[in-house]
Amino acid sequence: MKKILLFLAVIGLTFIMLSCGNKSKDSNRLILSTWSSSQVETEAINMLVDAFRNKYPDIPIEIQTLVGEYNDALQTQLLSGGGPDIFWIDAYTINQYINLGVLEPLTDFNTEGFITNMLSPFYVDNILYAVPKDFSTLALFYNKDMTEAAGVTIRDNMTWQEFTNSAARLTRNSVTGVGFVFDLARLNYMFQSDGSTIEVNGNPNITNKNVYYILNELIKLRDNKYMITPTDGGKGWLGELFGAEMVAMAVEGPWTYSYLKESFPNLNFGIVQVPKNPNGSEFTAAYTVGYGINKNSKKKDWAKTFIEFATSEEGMTIPTEKASLLPVRNSLFSLVSNPDLKPFTDSASKAVVWTGSKNMPYLFQEFANFIPTALEGQNSLEQTLNNIQNAVENTIKNNP
């Protein structure tokens, strides 16, 4: 019995020593957390980190890719007092993290040279909490063979009437004019086209007249059979729907370009800036991701050094050239050498970044829950918007 107890004691001591050794090892490294990305983007971030290691050999750094639901996993780590030193953070979720008190303010960071509207979502109460690393906008993809056969000309910033007329003329046989996704993150720029917002002081404002007007215009296109969603076409997403030549046009982001080139190499397509909104205004949607620092990190100086390097012209050049990620510095636009991607960079200055208060995820979810009832005619559009408004208000009330 004594031998067994002695054996267990030795095993336990060994485990403790190994655990302490691992913690010590972790404490001597800078940890950067990211989510799962495409192979090209993963290679680009690895190249960026390698370049940092070469320039700062005294700062050991490791990439930690979080699997599963990124924000849930990351927030669990941060709220426990642990977690990475640096992490990717979407502009859409910035207010959640600020509300949780886990972000270190970046009060002395030099932001000169950044695209203003890509940087501004990371400022809250005039305090910078993250630094953008890249961005995406939406553009209009079109099938050149189909538009040529129909005698339709597609150009940058078409009027809404030109766009809807094109969708009608391109709808023929088994092809629908345009593919579209009724997703709040994609529609928000249209909803704000008259200066109104879908949130006011953290409360939903989804029943405002411009939301109704925009959705009504889009639903009319679908009711007239000039527009379908990926679900309508039995496809997983819009890029697949467009690649399968089930639609002649589709509003999508730059990530779709490489997908189409790889999956549909014979597809003859072009890209232009999105059409003007129904009221004539020119906007597009933008999505941007930044680097944030864990407020509990013991290596804040190292973390700031990495962010300064990664978002400098030198550092940002790597993912721009390697993965065609759109840089948030105007001076690097010339590095986006592929002319096909020009509509995305050209529209950056007029892009509305997808972001919101800590309650925006509630609005996003309830919009997704209820909008199908309007699309399928189960409820009027007015009733649908009221249902969304009421559901979000109740959720906020129950989650103060």
From TrEMBL:
It comes from the Bacteria. One of its GO terms (cellular component) is ATP-binding cassette (ABC) transporter complex, substrate-binding subunit-containing. This is Sugar ABC transporter substrate-binding protein. GO terms for molecular function: maltose binding. Keywords: Signal, Transport. The keyword Transport applies. CDD domains: PBP2_TMBP_like (cd13585). GO terms for biological process: maltodextrin transmembrane transport; maltose transport. Belongs to the bacterial solute-binding protein 1 family.
